UniProtKB/TrEMBL annotation:
Oxidoreductase among keywords: yes
Gene3D superfamilies named in the record: NADP-dependent oxidoreductase domain
A single Gene Ontology CC term: cytosol
A Pfam family the protein falls into: Aldo_ket_red
Keywords: Oxidoreductase
Domain of life: Bacteria
Residue intervals of the NADP-dependent oxidoreductase domain: 36-334
Protein name from the UniProt record: Oxidoreductase
Source organism: Rhizobium johnstonii (strain DSM 114642 / LMG 32736 / 3841) (Rhizobium leguminosarum bv. viciae)
Length: 336
């Protein structure tokens, strides 16, 4: 259940923000609690410059939300960037933010290609964590995720590296991203057999359009094992905001290649369903899409990015939007 304990209106640089204290959600067995929406740091240093990123983070925490998601590889795909750009921006924000470090949960990832290929080798993780800590200007990472599976490295080696980092106090909890049910179960089995910490958080791709990889065996396993689930691409690279209705809408945009694939019959059915629920509730498509995720089995909190304060306001509203059973059924059917 998600609700606002109290609300008030604040003015923030000509931006009116509904500030609310959110009911936190338990993140699996990590001992950590997250607000219903996680801010995505993939846009920091890409479509949001440092000044904009700082303003978004300030407003995000002012809204009663508390968790930032990033990765060491963000945003290396931008010409001139080297990777670690998002972490560096977050680190500079943390160093001057009014929010105390213990009130900000930081999720970052390791294992993506930073010039060495994708790897979860122990020696690489032990070095990479130091780089992330330096960029983030912090002594510890709240949740450290294996970004991609590595079939060349045994689970025991990767989990052993995380065990060392937990003992050293450099990370608090561990998880993985892009693991299917079979691979996640194999990691649990390896952890139990070797007496190592297991993954307690999963970050899968999941949204109204992309459902098959999470719904079913993977969601069932997460519920059974009490895994905290924070979804990425929760708005399908911006498609579920409703602003992309044809290929011409995507031309020249930073996300052009990612969004175009959703412009098929299924995608248009979903947009039509979102428009119908929007007309009934007064909520925006993005808010409805995130509220839909918050009611899905196994989901703790979706990740969503913002590149403006108006977008951030919409994300905050989605955390307290209650969708009816009829609206959920309509959306389920459109994206089936």
């Amino acid at each position: 259940m998600v609700r606002a304990a109290f609300c008030r209106i604040r003015d923030f640089n000509s931006f009116t923000l509904l500030e609310s204290v959110m009911e936190m959600r338990r993140l699996g067995k990590t001992g950590l609690s997250v607000a219903p929406i996680v801010i995505g740091g993939n846009v920091f240093g890409w479509t949001a410059d440092e000044k904009t990123s700082f303003a978004i983070l300030d407003a995000f925490f002012d809204a009663g939300l508390n968790t930032i998601d990033t990765a060491d590889v963000y945003s290396s795909w931008v010409p001139g960037n080297k990777g670690g750009d998002s972490e560096e921006i977050i680190g500079r924000w943390l160093s001057q933010a009014k929010v105390s470090r213990d009130k900000a949960l930081i999720v970052t990832k390791v294992g993506s290609d930073m010039g060495q290929g994708k790897t979860l080798k122990e020696t690489y993780i032990l070095k990479a964590v130091e780089d992330s800590l330096r960029r983030l200007q912090t002594d510890y990472i709240d949740v450290y995720l294996s970004h991609w599976p590595d079939e060349d490295t045994p689970h025991e080696e990767t989990l052993g590296a995380y065990a060392k980092l937990k003992q050293q106090g450099k990370i608090r909890a561990i998880g993985c991203s892009n693991y299917d049910a079979k691979l996640l179960q194999a990691s649990f089995d390896a952890a139990e057999k070797a007496g190592l910490p297991r993954y307690d958080v999963l970050q899968p791709e999941y949204n109204l359009y992309e459902r098959s990889s999470f719904e079913g065996p993977l969601a069932d396993l997460c519920v059974k094992e009490d895994i905290g689930v924070i979804t990425y691409f929760s708005l399908a690279a911006g498609f579920l905001t409703g602003k992309y209705r044809s290929k011409s809408d995507t031309q020249g945009r930073a996300r052009e290649g990612r969004v175009s694939k959703y412009l098929d019959d299924k995608g248009l059915r979903i947009l039509a369903a979102l428009d119908k629920v929007s007309a009934e509730t007064g909520a925006k498509p993005a808010e409805i899409s995130l509220a839909w995720l918050l009611r899905k089995k196994g989901v703790t909190a979706p990740i969503a990015s913002a590149t403006s304060l108006s977008q951030l306001e919409s994300l905050a509203k989605s955390a307290t939007l209650a969708l009816s059973d009829d609206a959920m059924a309509l959306l389920d059917q459109a994206g089936a």
